TrEMBL record:
<keyword id="KW-0732">Signal</keyword>
<dbReference type="InterPro" id="IPR011990">
    <property type="entry name" value="TPR-like_helical_dom_sf"/>
</dbReference>
<keyword id="KW-0802">TPR repeat</keyword>
<feature type="repeat" description="TPR">
    <location>
        <begin position="172"/>
        <end position="205"/>
    </location>
</feature>
<feature type="signal peptide">
    <location>
        <begin position="1"/>
        <end position="18"/>
    </location>
</feature>
<protein>
    <recommendedName>
        <fullName>Flp pilus assembly protein TadD, contains TPR repeats</fullName>
    </recommendedName>
</protein>
<dbReference type="InterPro" id="IPR019734">
    <property type="entry name" value="TPR_rpt"/>
</dbReference>
Length: 286
């Protein structure tokens, strides 16, 4: 009888150990699953930021094909296609994302962005119209401003640009876009102010510096603005001012600016030298 009790106790202990072993294995498997998910999320983040865009596309294509129900991987594919400048394909993938359970208003904004990049302004406008007014983000209003601009709805564009600026701590890009919008409308003075403000947030943007020179030149202010610039940038900006002066009939000023651009550039400035030679040969008349 005692042997039976002992055997029963030993068997019970063995079963308990087996149960504990099974429980530990399940916990380990779950832990590994969690770690793998974290690693995969980190890898996805890396692929969307610092990796080569083409490599990112390959990664997300493979991962999305292996996990067709994972909307995050499909989003990653859409974003990486935009980075790789495959905008038409990005539109298709964003549309697929929106057809999946769990799609959000942010995904609609992503689609509108890709549509704008693929020059489908009507499609972008239609997509943004499906986003509820309660969804207020920088990206949404930045795109709304661009769409309004494309339709020459200046009052709406200005309102959207202003809202977008207030929703980000890095407004340099949208300020530059707003300034360019003002410049194309013929409001060079307002454009100058917006470009100057953009440079306070991103002093390294040559595009904004060049736009600032264009805005000043449109007002016949041909001297370069007081902004940080390299010697090469200075030469390029002088060249921009020179061409603007010549276009507006201020040929002598343009000639002087071209000469200064040639003298300033640390290397041979072919475009400026050629324009200067054309002026000197009277191929461009005052």
């Amino acid at each position: 009888m005692r042997q039976i009790i002992v055997m029963t106790a030993l068997l019970g202990g063995a079963l308990m150990l087996a149960a504990c072993g099974a429980s530990d294995s399940a916990k380990e498997a779950e832990a590994f699953k969690t770690v793998n998910a974290i690693d995969e999320t980190n890898l996805s983040d890396i692929m969307l930021t610092v990796s080569d865009p083409k490599e990112a596309v390959k990664y997300f294509q493979r991962s999305a094909n292996e996990n067709p129900d994972r909307i995050d991987l499909k989003r990653g594919l859409a974003k990486s296609l935009v980075r790789a400048k495959q905008h038409d394909q990005a539109v298709k993938v964003w549309q697929a994302v929106l057809a999946m359970p769990g799609a959000t208003d942010a995904d609609k904004v992503g689609l509108a962005d890709a549509q704008i990049r693929s020059n489908d302004w009507a499609g972008a406008k239609a997509t943004l119209n499906t986003v509820p007014p309660t969804y207020e983000t920088y990206d949404r209003y930045r795109l709304e401003a661009m769409v309004a601009d494309s339709g020459k709805q200046w009052k709406k564009a200005d309102s959207f640009y202003d809202t977008a600026v207030g929703l980000t701590t890095r407004p340099a890009g949208v300020l530059n876009n707003w300034g360019f919008s003002k410049l194309t409308r013929g409001d060079a003075k307002s454009a100058e102010k917006l470009f100057a403000e953009a440079l306070t947030y991103d002093p390294s943007s040559f595009t904004t510096k060049n736009n600032l020179v264009l805005a000043r030149a449109a007002q016949r202010k041909y001297d370069l603005p007081v902004v940080d610039m390299t010697q090469t940038e200075r030469a390029q900006l002088l060249y921009t001012a020179a061409l603007s002066a010549i276009k507006q009939g201020d040929v002598n000023t343009g000639r002087s600016l071209l000469q200064e651009a040639v003298d300033t550039n640390p290397q041979y400035f072919e475009e400026a030298a050629r324009a200067l030679a054309a002026l000197d040969a009277n191929k461009v008349k005052a």
